[in-house]
Amino acid sequence: MSTAMNFSNKSFTPRPPDKGAFPLDHFGECSAFKERFMECLRQSGYESAACRQSAKAYLECRMDRRAVFSKMFVLFSSFLLRQLMANEPLEKLGFKDLINEKSEEKPEKS
Amino acid sequence: VVPGETALAFYKAKNPTDKPIIGISTYNVVPFEAGQYFNKIQCFCFEEQRLNPHEEVDMPVFFYIDPEFAEDPKMAKVDLITLSYTFFEAKEGQKLPLPGYQ
Predict the structure, then answer these.
(1) CA B50 – CA B37 distance, rounded (Å)
(2) What's the short name of a Pfam family annotated to this entry (chain B) (predicted)?
(3) CB < 8 Å to B43, chain A
(4) Is there a contact between B46 and A17 if contact means CB atoms under 8 Å apart?
(5) Is A18's Cβ below 8 Å from some Cβ in B?
(6) CA-to-CA distance for A92 and A90, rounded, in angstroms?
(7) Structurally, how many domains does chain B consist of?
């Protein structure tokens, strides 16, 4: 499906995300982190590079969370525990420099 | 956004109806030629997502622009890339007609 406004025969082929889909944060568990990130963006004039610490904090929040409903079944069915994001080492998400406090910015992909 | 650096973006979706809706989204990148450099690490797209009545959720996209973008002379004039998502309602059990088969 193509919504590009060109008249050629090229059509845009969507590609799936490398690490799959984010489950929805129905309970807004990480909303506070998201607000902090958005506030940072507004203050920095939407410079993504300036807000990588906040982005990292948001993703860490997602990795730490279990979906609230699954806590009720934790005794019986730990296989139902659903994180809002699979645990990934932060270097693999492009935050290597923020961990080591180095200035290089190479994103590492698994 | 700097090519090669991971970045986070948020969209917001709201279900204004009184019924739960199951949706699937797909995305588009403009300009078309920039799409090949757009790499999603994780997003909310392609999988069915359920929105309860009157629910509003934040939908994150975690991505990076391939650093080769900066090397491509055709991209020299591109300083704005627009990522858009379209949310479709998923229809259960829909059987698409296969041409030539009955």
Answers:
(1) 30
(2) CtaG_Cox11
(3) 17, 21-22
(4) yes
(5) yes
(6) 5
(7) 1
**Does any domain span residue B63?**
yes
Structure tokens at B93: 């059990």
Ranges under pLDDT 50 in chain B:
102
Do B27 and A19 make contact, defined as CB atoms within 8 angstroms?
Answer: no
B45 contacts on A by Cβ (under 8 Å): 14, 17, 21
A17, two tokens: 């995300």
Tokens (6 digits) for A6: 């060109």
Q: Which of B1, B2, B6 is the best mutation test for A, with the most CBs of A within 10 A?
A: B6
Q: Say if B98 falls within a structural domain.
A: no
> What range does the domain containing B32 cover?
5-89
Q: State which residue of chain A sits closest to B7, comparing Cα positions.
A: A48
Joined together, the tokens standing for residue B18 give 């009184």
Number of H helices, E strands in chain B: 0, 6
Q: Which of B8, B44, B86 is facing A21, going by the closest CB pair?
A: B44
Report ipTM (2 d.p.). 0.75
- Predicted confidence pLDDT, tens digits, chain A (110 residues): 445 555 555 666 778 888 777 787 777 888 899 999 999 999 999 888 889 889 988 988 888 874 444 444 444 444 434 567 777 777 778 887 777 653 444 444 44
What tokens were used for B46?
Answer: 């392609």
Place of tokens 């229809």: B91
